[in-house]
Design brief:
This protein is α+β, with helices and mostly antiparallel strands and 141 residues long. It contains 2 helices and 9 strands, in the order αβββββαββββ. Helices cover 16% and strands 38% of the residues. 27% of the residues are buried.
């Protein structure tokens, strides 16, 4: 009887939602627009990042990191170098990351939203994270 109840409860669980998010640079300025995003925990996130620049040829990326880890990930990225996307290989502090993209380009990545909390996102191109940062608010379902 207990196993039948467990089956019924399991069948009632909702599938995590699919969420589409968009973020871009503020034209040629190293700023993310929007600076805040929100998703429910467990959501299948499809994030599109667009480099809206038209003049400057600097590259940008979008890196989602664990709380309190943005500065350390950014510093380690400088040591990793541009050939590594300004990102330490297999960094456990990174939840999701786009590759570097040129002005006018877009890239889409997919990831599962982590546990509830506020997660910083940054651009790890040297000197950009000071202004090019934001927060992904992950809420309870």
């Amino acid at each position: 009887m207990a196993s039948a109840a467990a089956l019924v409860l399991t069948g009632c669980e909702r599938k995590p939602p699919d969420v589409a998010l968009s973020v871009q640079s503020d034209g040629d300025f190293p700023i993310f627009t929007p600076a805040e995003l929100s998703v429910p925990t467990g959501a299948h996130v499809k994030l599109t990042f667009h480099h809206a620049g038209t003049i400057l040829s600097q590259t940008h990326n979008w890196i989602l990191v664990k709380p309190g880890m943005a500065e350390a990930v950014d510093m380690d990225g400088m040591d990793a170098g541009e050939q590594s996307n300004w990102l330490k290989k297999d960094d456990p502090r990174v939840i999701a990351a786009t590759p570097l993209i040129e002005k006018g380009a877009s890239v889409t990545i997919e990831f599962t939203a982590p546990a509830p909390g506020d997660y910083p996102y940054i651009c790890t191109t040297p000197g950009h994270s000071e202004d090019m940062h934001g927060i992904l608010h992950v809420t309870r379902n």
